[in-house]
């Protein structure tokens, strides 16, 4: 299957290329970049030198030739690609925020008008796999909502308050330099940002609701001196106290058979480069601490997008996603 | 004034020596270490080369000669020094946990018997300065309770639930190598530990109660790839919603005139090496996020101990603590 | 082919297991550890959870059952395994220092007596591939000599002085905590060690001589705040000045057809997790700066060992070593 | 004495303000910034909150009122300030490169025309203190030349080849974000740059010559994942072999009585925030490894500038520079 990556110069684009190298059915044949048109992909992604001769191109949306496309462009850019691609029979996963939320919520939170809205399945397979099957278009979740929702999901119906305190590596800010990502501003620091107003909160609330929760939901992200990974500490205040064994049983049952969820002590290094989400829980009765670790660029972006592609296309769900993580 | 530092080889001991270098009234004349007896202090603290000719000694508790003593030894060791020192007229600040809690709470949480218990003022001056004045013995707070309590204090009477999510630098684990502090286990990771059972929780509850709070109190610490500093994100669920201005006014009022509390965006690098606690707050109505940044070895240990000494001795409260922090 | 890993609990052992997961012909059937006997391999290597049910065993050297064995135990331990394994028809790659040097040099530098010495091919395939072919036993090079030798090799016959200034990540020190690897002693520092006396110098001199060089050879390693990777800056003072184009042509020619050597700007992140050695050179006439980047645990240990196994067994030289590196 | 800092918004400017806080004779009364005119200094330097009410101004060169001025602006900008300040009786230390080199060398290397050149004393006091005394204008050395020259100076007359392999923290690149300083491009990496062509090489050669050396001089800098500090490994090939004791004696003699040079194992953390240069040496006969550690923003910039001011003004040479460094 020929795959196009629209917006292939950034971190998520690079990860799509890297991961698809080991996919038995898919091959990247189109990698687009406005700024780098004509340059070899390996100039931007030097780790892939020797793996691909691909050159960045800059086709119009209607000129992209492929069986499948990933949109790894910013929100508001993605909405220009979806219909042109679908109309030509190309299935699509969109990694941007453009189709994750109801139109009104999206327009309010992102402060823009949507020019091509329709409802799309939300591709967090461990929560809503059925919607993804046979879909021709899937919206890929945000990095924070992925780790947060998977941490809290089994307790969603039992929670009164869910507070997500997340710690994200700097690759989540993209490859564009800014004061936020300037090394001396990051190293030796822990920087909370958008303490109560991060855009991903809406997705988190949406997913808790989908899971039958009526809990109040809060979210504070922190930028931490780490390249990759999101660790989410979910502080869950329960309606009724639950003991450790009961909680553990709930998680085991909820995630039974899920290849990408491993119930073990979450360490960023143990999931690095992989599509795993490692989760553990500890109950003190009225509060449960549930912690998840993901690689923000993989389970939080490119890897989950490929997982969705696999489900959409009927491949093994872990095709191209079986390479073991690399620790330390 | 001659000062003895009992347990001067560790990080807190080293910080006491460093900070007292700039104190106008105090001079370190005794620095004890069992393991390093006879060796120059600067072998262990090479940054201080050129500042002191002091040599580690190992006197019995009853043989220490000084006007003032800091105990920077582990809990259970400290309790052997207090009475012998006080009996000889030496005033004392204990940096260990031995006198921070009621006896029964201490014995239960630390799992040991106290052999010389009595009640001591808890030296968090911004909360309970009166008790410190004229005291001959003060118990210095734990590093986490200092940052956490200062973050939440103004809202204590209005809180229903207080969740402290703390991120600590590795110097908090001391200078003794272990798997926990092994570089590859720390770098590129964010490691929660004692998710619901950290010993400092009891101090946090005690201080909230002292402030008139009936809130449920929770605490989860994380080890982060930073040398120095604790950032505490206090998620405070209020009894009644409060707006941003009202909350800010509360903090301004509460900390008016406090030299060591600065109400500005907390950054670990902006307090590094200093006794400051930088705090900011953001309200979303029912939840307030209050974040504090301290240097765990200074306001969380040695600096606060000197602050207590200054209050006990009638010196300017910031004597020896005026050197500006160093950023980046 | 059944593979035994003797000493499978450390970083190199873990990497052998990780990399062999993707090898088409080899399967790890024995993983030994004295300290962890009876425990699942994934307790020690949690990133591999879900990939293997292997349990650590502790067989005597004469009881190991396999077609091929890797020795990932410390020097002096390895020499007890080689003959017993070879006698039973098991081919071996030794990752320790026990067979890298002539007996007298080894005994002098390592300060021990060798109890079972014989000559073994030195498995740096890009330099001496022929010796490895059809061998039943190969000695795997040290991490520093691998990166250093590959950086300087094309210029070896033209050099008067070769000074290797190497910067190594902390995983090179193993997984055993010590003051050297204590996080606060590593972070924010650059620590030279064994400035003129590192044991790997002898290997470096041996390889320069093998390449026909009569240059004086010097080596100073530095521990740097990085988990993985060795960057070696080779300062090469030439017998006769050479221009940039001439030097580049020499390198291109020397490494033509080498899968694992890529002539591009060396970045640790671009080789991380992989068996690549990225090299670039810059001439200023009388001095050439040649810099190489390797992953110390892969090309510097486990990956090169598998590369040697592949050559010994007639597999594709990059079998099990084709997974792309992961950046950032 | 009233002090003006021209270009006070960057790291060097911030350090000048921080360090002068503890100076007994000097007070910062003017802090200029084009971009931040009208804003409080503490908005840009939040660690100094509570220490100063100073507001950034943007006066013309001829309107600056002060007794002494530091120029912490980029090269080519500094040359516009010197004469106007000197003409009005204001003594000056220039931290830029504009007056460090002979005019022709400067113009060739920096690729610009000098519009106001004259000869100025080079302010590396340990090497050429006499020239600084009573000067009204001093050119402050570059960060790399400071650490490198101090490392090699005592051996300068005995050296045949001097190779400086330097490792610099990221604050040396300034506070302006760029791809070079983007966190994911720095963390977990060691990045050599300008391998043979860094502009500071000319200063290094000039200082070796001043010290009576005829050695060939080479320099390769590396950016390392550290905020502050430069560690320079000087590989010195001698004309004639020298033993360890002889070399050590040479260094002790050369630096006898120098307050800011400490002969001990160089660690970046042991000099952080201070004006010290820690140096140690190890001889292997024909090669000596001499390693220096400085804080690039202090001894490599602001601290040395204050040291020069002190000498120019007849203050104690260490006035304002006695605060102990902060480790870890």
Automatic annotation (TrEMBL), chains A, B, C, D:
Domain Semialdehyde dehydrogenase NAD-binding per the UniProt entry, residue ranges: 2-135
EC number: 1.2.1.38
Pathway annotation from the record: Amino-acid biosynthesis; L-arginine biosynthesis; N(2)-acetyl-L-ornithine from L-glutamate: step 3/4
Cellular localization per UniProt: Cytoplasm
CDD domains from the UniProt entry: AGPR_1_C, AGPR_1_N
Active site feature: 143
The keyword Phosphoprotein is annotated on this UniProt entry: no
Family, similarity comment: Belongs to the NAGSA dehydrogenase family. Type 1 subfamily.
PANTHER family: N-ACETYL-GAMMA-GLUTAMYL-PHOSPHATE REDUCTASE, CHLOROPLASTIC-RELATED (PTHR32338:SF10), N-ACETYL-GAMMA-GLUTAMYL-PHOSPHATE REDUCTASE, CHLOROPLASTIC-RELATED-RELATED (PTHR32338)
Purpose of the protein: Catalyzes the NADPH-dependent reduction of N-acetyl-5-glutamyl phosphate to yield N-acetyl-L-glutamate 5-semialdehyde.
Full protein name: N-acetyl-gamma-glutamyl-phosphate reductase
Source species of the chain: Methanofollis fontis
């Amino acid at each position: 299957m020929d795959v196009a990556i629209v917006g292939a110069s950034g971190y998520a684009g690079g990860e799509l290329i890297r991961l698809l190298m080991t996919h038995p059915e898919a091959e990247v044949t189109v990698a687009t970049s406005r700024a780098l048109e004509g340059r070899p992909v390996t100039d931007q992604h030097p780790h892939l030198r020797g793996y691909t001769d691909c050159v960045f191109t800059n086709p119009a949306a209607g000129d992209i030739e492929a069986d499948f496309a990933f949109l790894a462009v910013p929100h508001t850019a993605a909405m220009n690609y979806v219909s042109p691609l679908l109309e030509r029979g190309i299935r699509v996963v969109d990694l941007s925020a453009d189709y994750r939320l109801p139109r009104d919520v999206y327009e309010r939170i992102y402060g823009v008008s949507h020019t091509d809205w329709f409802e799309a399945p939300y591709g967090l397979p461990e929560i809503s796999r059925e919607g993804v099957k046979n879909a021709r278009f899937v919206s890929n979740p945000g990095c924070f909502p992925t780790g947060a929702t998977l941490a809290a999901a089994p307790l969603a119906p039992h929670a009164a308050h869910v507070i997500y305190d997340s710690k994200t590596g700097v690759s989540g800010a993209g490859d564009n330099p800014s004061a936020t990502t300037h090394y001396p501003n990051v190293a030796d620091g822990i920087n909370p940002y958008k303490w109560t107003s991060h855009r991903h909160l809406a997705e988190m609330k949406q997913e808790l609701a989908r899971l039958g929760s009526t809990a109040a939901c809060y979210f504070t992200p922190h930028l931490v001196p780490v390249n990759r990974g999101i660790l989410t500490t979910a502080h869950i205040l329960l309606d009724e106290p639950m003991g450790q064994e009961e909680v553990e049983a709930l998680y085991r049952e909820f995630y039974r058979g899920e290849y990408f969820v491993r119930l073990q002590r979450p360490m960023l290094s143990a999931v690095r480069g992989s599509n795993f989400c490692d989760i553990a829980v500890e109950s003190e009765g009225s509060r449960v601490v549930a912690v998840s670790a993901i690689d923000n660029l993989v389970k939080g972006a490119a890897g989950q997008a490929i997982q969705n592609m696999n489900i959409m296309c009927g491949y093994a769900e872990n095709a191209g996603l079986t390479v073991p993580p690399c620790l330390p």
